[in-house]
Amino acid sequence: MGLFPQRGRLARLLEEGVRRNKAYESIITLGMRGDGDMPMSRESNTSVAGAHRCRQRKIIAAEVNPDVTKVPQDWALYKEVQEYYEKACASG
Fold first, then answer.
1. Which of the pair, 35 or 11, is modelled with greater confidence?
2. Quick count: other Cβ atoms within 10 Å of Cβ 44?
3. What is the C-alpha separation between 49 and 67, in angstroms, rounded?
4. Other CB atoms closer than 10 Å to residue 19's CB: what's the count?
């Protein structure tokens, strides 16, 4: 089974981690990489990858602070993935 069918599990995992650590001073590490830590191909579902990043920010807003710019975050985005994130977040 690939990564994208697991997106509900990924969201729950992040929600649980953010909830568990929100009372502590911490940095939330965000990001996702392709299978085997390889860049995603153009054939990959890049819209899902971008939407995943938007979902991560929404979870932070709901669980920690609606102003996500006030929450320390370490974005582990690779060059080709940043573009997917920007397109997905701009569209909704």
1. 11
2. 16
3. 23
4. 13
Mean pLDDT across 39-53? 64
Helix (H, G, I), strand (E, B) or coil at 74: strand
Environment class of residue 41 by beta-carbon count within 10 Å: exposed (0-12), middle (13-18) or buried (19+)? exposed
Cα gap 14→3, rounded to integer Å? 15
Residue 58 three-state SS:
helix
Nearest to 88 by CA among 43, 56, 51, 58: 51
Helices (H), the chain: 7-21, 46-63, 79-90
Q: How many domains does the chain have?
A: 1
CB 74 within 8 A of CB 27: yes
Domain ranges, residue 51: 4-90
Contacts of 86 (CB under 8 A, 6+ apart): 50
